[in-house]
Amino acid sequence: MAGAKAPVPAPTVPLTAAVRDRIFLRGRELYRDLPWRRARDPYAIWVSETMLQQTQVSRVDGRWQRWLERFPSVDALAAASSADVLDEWQGLGYNRRALALWRAAVQVVEEHAGEMPRDERELRALPGIGPATAAGIRAFAYDLPGTYLETNVRSVFLHELFPDAQDVPDAAIAPLVAQACPASPIEIAGADAPCTPRTWYYALLDYGFHLKRTLPNPSRRSRSNARQSRFEGSHRQKRAAVVRLLLDVRTQGQGLLPADVAEALTASETAAGRAPVDEAYARDILGQLAREGFCREQDGRWLA
Q: CATH for 12-228, among 3.30.1490.190, 3.30.540.10, 1.10.340.30, 3.30.365.10?
């Protein structure tokens, strides 16, 4: 029948208690003592979860600590300017994540008296918090169950339960992730800690990280797998460069003219052997950034 949805594949290997226990034990053997794992503060965990989206652990370690020194609480982040938040975020990529953090902090202060919610729906109502981030906050800060489906977790389930399958949709994986997550502590023979949502998902993250380093990446067999587009020379790179230009001149209080932006972008593009950037394109980038809250126009000049 035209337009009919493809059936959701069943796992080749059933998810049993024995399989779950074996996965947990293997993950505990591979445990990584990362700094944010020593935290229980939901704000600190939220920041780490946001930073770790599409960013390597090695780049987040150090930056997470520095962020918390500058913005040690939800209230401190909400009270900061968007320009200060963007300034601290530079080098982590995807600047939208920083603005979403800042806007969500303002909302938490205004609607939740500065306390991070526990409820999944309330978390997902905050800017930038999707299902995985909400589940991560609940698991790692509050030890509450949920469906924390991200790339390392996905890799474990593909490797263990769908060992030969290709193009596996998340619709097949997510119910198994939800089923496997313990609702209350479970004692597993040979484990150095009870299996709870917090320890279970750390085990999955570490096992998945190991699989991706030692085998052909299992997550590439997922239907949701998408190769990241090239950054160098892309529109995304030029947007990021303009944000940095705006932050560099903000202390002078003068702002930038579109011609200034075009000149700066042209210098970097031509140095890399690419085409120059005209003023119209620079205006388009500034307009996009303004609509998203990155900058504003004042008397013909653009300011962060």
A: 1.10.340.30
CATH for 235-303, options being 1.20.120, 1.10.10, 3.30.160, 3.30.200? 1.10.10
Q: Give the span between the Cα atoms of 259 and 264, in whole angstroms.
A: 9
Q: Report residues of the chain scoring pLDDT below 50.
A: 1
The pLDDT of residue 231 is 78
Known active-site residue 49:
yes
Q: Which residue has the tokens 């069943």?
A: 10
Strand partners, 222: 168
- For residue 102 the two structure tokens come to 């800042």
Of 49, 88, 150, 160, the active-site residue reads 49
pLDDT of residue 226: 65
Nearest by Cα to 149 from 165, 133, 138, 137: 133
Give the model's pLDDT for residue 230.
Answer: 77
